[in-house]
Predict the structure.
Amino acid sequence: MIILLTVKDFSRFAELVARLRRESDIELVPAATGAAGLTALKTQRIELVIVDEQLDDMDGIAFIKQVVKVNPLVNTALVSGLTADEFHEATEGLGVLMQLPSHPREIDAEALLTVLAKIGALMQPMARARLKAANS
């Protein structure tokens, strides 16, 4: 899985990154600005985008709105200090997978990996059904 890490201050994400790097099937692609993140999204098979609340060139929600235009099916996780209700209201319709705290820890990486595993488990039966239909 290729994860695009679009964040302004990589040091705040050290624990999250360390945990994700322990997974053998995860490749992290760093991007410090929204523009760099969008370029990576257009040139690589990104499966998850982790977005900081504020980037140098735009805020995280504005970036996700751009991401949806480039690849509406990519999963996203957004750093946000909003309450759960405010977060839901601000990101409604953008397909944001989950909210991350401003200093994501290993436990947040674990929660993210758990959600991704559940999505993967749901997608496998559909992929098998498409393959079976194509071979019929």
In short: The two ends are 29 Å apart (CA to CA). The chain has a mean pLDDT of 90.
